[in-house]
Amino acid sequence: MAWAHPTTGSAQACAPSLFVDPFALIEGLHEFLADGDVIAATDYSGMGAIGSPSYLIGTTEGNNVLDSVRAARALRDAHAATRLLLWGHSQGGQATLFAAAADYAPELHLVGVAVAAPQCSARHCCATTSATSSASGSARTHSPPTSRCTDRR
Asked: Rounded to two decimals, what is the model's pTM?
């Protein structure tokens, strides 16, 4: 199972792997482990290490999710199979949908996709907000992702 985490912030220090309990965000963790599943989880590009942030860059985030599965499969003692279940929430929901649509990892065999509250692209959200604001005459703004971490540590 590949877990795609929700938004935790865009600063490098916001990477779930740097949290005191990096597994705290994995919804259903205990149930998956009890069923004998291998769980792969990624920080998205630019989180936890130097690099450009990839917040809401669907192709990059989706490929990061698939790369986490490839990394798990490379660990001999993990016994990770090629069957793949994708599970993501919020930002991870978007990453999951992009991973499911990708031809990036043809060696993996997708058996299921689950998403909760998938995030939309900022461009789409801004375009929708602008159109709504113009039609209603009300003032709405779209705030870019914060460089602070959400309170999940």
From this structure: 0.79
